[in-house]
Amino acid sequence: MTQNSRTQDSRTQNSRLARTPLSVLDLAHVRQGGTIADAFRNTLDMAQHAERWGYKRFWLAEHHNIAGVASAATSVLIGHIAGGTSTIRVGSGGIMLPNHAPLVIAEQFGTLETLYPGRIDLGLGRAPGGDFAVTRALRKDLRANGDDFPALLEELQHYFAPVQPGQTVTAIPGAGIHVPIWLLGSSGFSAALAAELGLPFAFAAHFQPDNLLPALDLYRRSFKPSKILDRPYAMAGIPVLAAETDEEAEFLATTPQQMFLNLIRNRPVPLMPPVRRMEWDAFEQSAVEAKFRAAIVGGPETVRQKLELFLDETQVDEVMIASNPYEHSARLRSYEIVAELAGISPRRELSFS
């Protein structure tokens, strides 16, 4: 081993990045010119690579009525991914609980945990996962705005608890099954609720970065120990796109930039190929850049430095990475580079299940 190699190994082992679990967020993106079946095959392939590279979790997110996002039937897709992997934790990032009867979610995730014991996570959010039309189609009551989320969560936890004498409705499977519940959010609401209930908290900085630090501070200051956790456990989701050079990564990053630009224009489309020049006005550029304020884009050394700075600033216990270039091979390489930088391995011992 050369002196440079020993220095690099020492730096990796002593860095915060090397001590922080890394996970993957996936939306089963459909590429322009591709099919939903292609997206599902790529999602499974990504999960299998992530497992080999030592990522801890592979989460799928519930979104509806968005062209280019195929993860709407989240529980079904979780089962497909868990069935095609063997060690990585698979879960939701998240299930939008107000869209569903808590009993149904308890039964679905009780089934998943029974099929894949010790590998299923249940991340919960309160947004509809789509536009007004989606809210109307899913929730029927147009007055529903997520304020009933705490009550729905309590009902869901009741179905996961051991059956009590006289209980008239039981989740089968689900009752008495331990499925780790996470609260997800992009504001202080879920941070405060997670702190009150002693649950792990994940902040969605991959699309709403500005509230990250205040939400983490609120969660940590307000945290009450529980049977689940004796101290706060916080995760942040951020966009990371790594390539061989800064220039290549910045070019590839125009694909997710176009994705957000088209959402702003209310015309979502499948992932588009990268471009040398973004066509947008000043307002659109500002809006897209705000969404990517926490994004880390660059070659290996740039990504390493920025990830270390992010971890030092936020002190999060875990990072969930969203990386969405156009080509599947570029996506795989992005996650591989980050795994190499972190020195993660499948045998690594991690603290929270």
Automatic annotation (TrEMBL):
| CDD domains in UniProt | Flavin_utilizing_monoxygenases
GO cellular component term of the entry, any: cytosol
Entries under InterPro entries matching the protein: Bact_Lucif_Oxidored, CmoO-like, Luciferase-like_dom, Luciferase-like_sf
**Residue ranges of the Luciferase-like domain?**
23-312
Entry-linked Gene3D superfamilies = Luciferase-like domain
Q: State any single GO MF term.
A: oxidoreductase activity, acting on paired donors, with incorporation or reduction of molecular oxygen
A UniProt-annotated Pfam family:
Bac_luciferase
Stated family: To bacterial alkanal monooxygenase alpha and beta chains.
Official protein name in the record: Luciferase-like monooxygenase
- Organism of origin: Silvibacterium bohemicum
